[in-house]
Automatic annotation (TrEMBL):
Residues 47-187 form the Nudix hydrolase domain. Belongs to the Nudix hydrolase family. GO terms for molecular function: hydrolase activity. It comes from Frankia casuarinae (strain DSM 45818 / CECT 9043 / HFP020203 / CcI3). This is NUDIX hydrolase. Keywords: Hydrolase.
Amino acid sequence: MPVTNDDIAKTIRAHLDAHPEDAESLAPLLEAARGSDAPLASRTTTPGHVTCGVVAVTSDRQVLQIRHRSLNRWLLPGGHIEPDDASLLDAALRELAEETGIPRAWANPALERPVDVDAHVIPPNPAKREPEHIHYDLRFLLAIDPPAGNANVALQLEEVADYRWAPLTELPGRLSDRTRANLLARP
């Protein structure tokens, strides 16, 4: 069953329970999820829609970053929700596997809700006939536990140019703080 606006509203409310300071920036998304027939899980919904990403962290506190080919920036793995995704977390896990080859079996969700939600503007893409729009990126925190001696990454070269494992301290402010706090709270 595809991800619905109700699923998105429920997830945003759970995030806001933990981070009420995000209420103002997420109000447009929550309002659209509650009152719009436009599917916020669809990449064609404008002026904004939901995407799902991951903060993939190893036991030695290294975070996986990918070099996005068309944006030419270091980003967290993630992307658009597909109709076959059973949940928002499922979409994030699928994107991780697609972009990096890291299987779901290596990823253990640290939370059922996103650790962070980032709203950012995506520039227009004439080749895809996409206007400028907003991505509300729900970022899920995953502990990555590859089998001993096997931390290989197999990039989806159509979208990803490179990857790196960066120290957790290199994540930007709020995301770094929230990630560290949730990792420290884990048993």
